[in-house]
Each structure stands twice: as structure tokens, then as C-alpha cells.
Amino acid sequence: MTAKHHPDPSSLMSYAAGSLPEANAMVIACHLSCCEHCRKMVSDAEAVGRSLLEQLEPVAMSEGSRNQMLAMLDRIDPGSSHPVFRKDTGNIPVALQPMLGEDLHKLHWRALAPGMKQFVIPASVGKLRLLKITPGTSMPKHSHIGSELTLVLQGSYSDELGRFCAGDVADLDGDISHQPMADTQEDCICLIATDAPLKFTGLIPRLLQPFFDL
Ligand SMILES: [Zn+2]
């Protein structure tokens, strides 16, 4: 299956430059493992970055900067093959397995609202979570103060922007207001990175928000 919705090119460029917050970088890494189109964009951007580096006049670097640079180059090594995202089984993408194991269904999901459960994944910068929505359930309508980067791992949802299936990414900023609804017979499980709380439109979700930690 080929993804129909991809991250914004600016997100891919930032990922290639190593400047995305950790939570967002994890979502992009998981998408790359199932999207050749975006892998190519990232590797092209990395090549441009490398050739720019090569054109710089050599200057002596401090030991600290040199180590930082070497660590960064390790991270963007094109030889490090991107793992295969087994979306057919609903398994956790390989990039997330060190933190979560290999089976989405064995996680200790926390109930959030009727038909909605979440599992928060520790991230040093930004918020990263898995959200599970039962078929026919809608999230409350919301927009964003910051960005919201979502990758569908299993099932699908529809909102004002279209239909998002396993492997698809929604890369949203504060201008977009939407109300995703799980629209197939299986639970929709998404990996979501946010850098600020969501902005709910309705009164009840707004009152409950502090308890949901959304
Ligand atoms: Zn893609």
C-alpha cells in the first residue's frame, strides 16, 4: 500500500537537517519506513546538506562541536536502512519498538473518553502519544496552537481534509480545525506528535481537557 498523504516538504527538510523536535522526528521516521517517496526526498536533502558542508572553508573545531557534528552525521547516514513498517499487521513500527515492544495491542492503554484510549510515549522534546479510536467514534472538533503531526498505524479516519489510512500522515498547523472520525470496522490507531495543547471548540471538551492531557 502506498501512502496518499505525506508530511509537508518543510517537515522532511527539517528532519533531514536534524532540527525537528524528537516527537515529530519519530513520527517522520516511522512514515519513512513505509514511504519510498519521502525517503527519496530526505536522502536528496541530506545529499544537498553534505555538499554544502563540503564547500565550507575548513576551520578548526572545538572537541565538543566536532563530537556533536560526528553524532549528527551518524544519524543521517544514508546507509542506515529504514526499517519496514509492517502496517498489514498493525505492529509497532521498528523505530518505536525499543520503547514499546512489538505489539500495539499489548500496551496498557488508558481510557480517555468513550471510544478513545491513549498511550503516552516519553519524548524529550514535544509530546508523543498513541491514540486508539473505536470505529464510528469522533474526536471532539479541535484546532491547534502549535503543530500536530499524525501517522496512521492501523485502520483509518476521515475528517475535513480527507481520508487517512495506514501509512498516511497529516501534518497540520494552527490554522486547521478538524474532527477526525474512525471510519472502518477496526480500531484506528495513530501516532501523534504535538508541541502545544490542542484547542477544542466545544465547551465540554474544553472543560475536560486538563484531565485528558491532550
Ligand atoms: Zn511519504
From TrEMBL:
**What positions does the domain ChrR-like cupin occupy?**
103-194
Taking the record's annotation, the residue ranges forming a coiled coil are none
Which CDD domains did the record assign? cupin_ChrR
Q: Gene3D superfamilies this protein is in?
A: Anti-sigma factor, zinc-finger domain, Jelly Rolls
Question: In this record, what's one Pfam family?
Answer: Cupin_7
Q: Which SUPFAM superfamilies match?
A: RmlC-like cupins
Q: Which InterPro entries match?
A: Anti-sigma_ChrR (IPR012807), Anti_sigma_zinc_sf (IPR041916), ChrR-like_cupin_dom (IPR025979), RmlC-like_jellyroll (IPR014710), RmlC_Cupin_sf (IPR011051)
Q: Which NCBIfam families match?
A: anti_sig_ChrR
Protein name (Swiss-Prot/TrEMBL): ChrR family anti-sigma-E factor
Its lineage reads: Bacteria, Pseudomonadati, Pseudomonadota, Gammaproteobacteria, Oceanospirillales
